[in-house]
Amino acid sequence: MIKKVYKFIIKLKIKEWYIIMNKINFKNGIRRFALLTALILSATAISTANNIYENLYSFRSKRKVENPDPDSELKQKVKDRIRDVSTRAEAESRLVWVELPVWRLKDGKKVSDTEKIQVLDVLADEVKEIFHEIHKGKEKFPIKRLIGYSWRGSFKSLHSTGRAIDLNPEENPQVNSNGKAIVGKSWEPNSNPYSIKPDGDVVRAFTKRGWIWGANFRTRDYMHFGFAEM
């Protein structure tokens, strides 16, 4: 209800709002001014509290992450490595397991641990670099679940060739244009430590190397980072 009031207020021009207020039968100008002030302050508070939500879920994001091009030599190696892949077996023959340092949340404390995932062999070193950087970051971003290679039935998904990684799917959902979760539950970067922050260590570590964050997709995919995507 409050959000509807907020959206209604900001759509009105100042002149239109003034006309509406004068049509309301208040006993005096003080009550009218007090109500207007309270509504404006409420709208401002809601705007501040939901700034990231509005920006990223409404598809009018002011926080779009700019990605540099991936290393050209590595990009070519990836293209060459997957060029002739036409079956699941061929895709899996080009994968390797990588052991990555991660932080876990245990009894409210962050504890260092490791996790293994499969990725395309020529991306293994870069993936290790990314997670070592995240692990050394001030944020100490906790990992509940990682997904690297995952056969998705076709090669449309980068996961099918080990070129994509999903982090904490439940807390970093894929959402439609209305902000409703398709996969996962809810994205709460201001309160949930498992949710990826737009300006946090995870996004920086991936995007500085040219990986694309799924938050830039039309169907927002907050868990997803893909190499040389789009």
Fold blueprint:
Blueprint: H1 2-11, H2 14-23, H3 29-49, H4 51-57, H5 72-82, H6 88-92, E1 95-106, E2 109-120, H7 124-136, E3 146-147, E4 164-167, E5 174-175, E6 181-183, H8 201-207, E7 211-213, E8 224-227
Antiparallel strand pairs: 1-2, 3-4, 4-8, 5-6, 7-8
Describe it for me?
- The protein has about 230 residues and is an alpha+beta fold.
- Helix content is about 35%, strand content about 20%.
- The strands form three sheets. A four-stranded antiparallel beta sheet has the order 3-4-8-7.
- Helix 1 packs across helix 3 and helix 7 packs antiparallel against helix 8.
- Across the major sheet, the strand order is 3-4-8-7
E-strand count: 8
Tell me the series of helices and strands, N- to C-terminal. Answer: HHHHHHEEHEEEEHEE
The biggest beta sheet reads:
4 strands, antiparallel
- Tally of helical runs: 8
The 3D shape can be described as globular
Q: What structural class results from the helix and strand content? A: alpha+beta
- What share of the residues lie within helices? 25-40%
Q: Would you identify the regions where 5 or more consecutive residues have pLDDT less than 50?
A: 42-62
* β-strand amount: 15-25%
Q: What is the first-to-last residue Cα distance?
A: 38 Å
Radius of gyration, in Å, reads 23 Å
Mean pLDDT: 80
